[in-house]
Specification:
This protein has 54 residues and is mostly helical. Helices cover 93% and strands 0% of the residues.
Length: 54
Amino acid sequence: MIASIKRFVANESGATAIEYALIASLIAVAIIVSLTALGTQLNSTFNEVSGNLK
């Protein structure tokens, strides 16, 4: 019984999975923020080009 409790406490695979999930979520947030900023910039550029073509 004590051996199984020691194995459970020493098992770090769950913590590693959580760390990888946090890293992946931070990367996803960074990508979303950068694409949002890029989309806004592209929208203004296309509006400017459209205005110049009229």
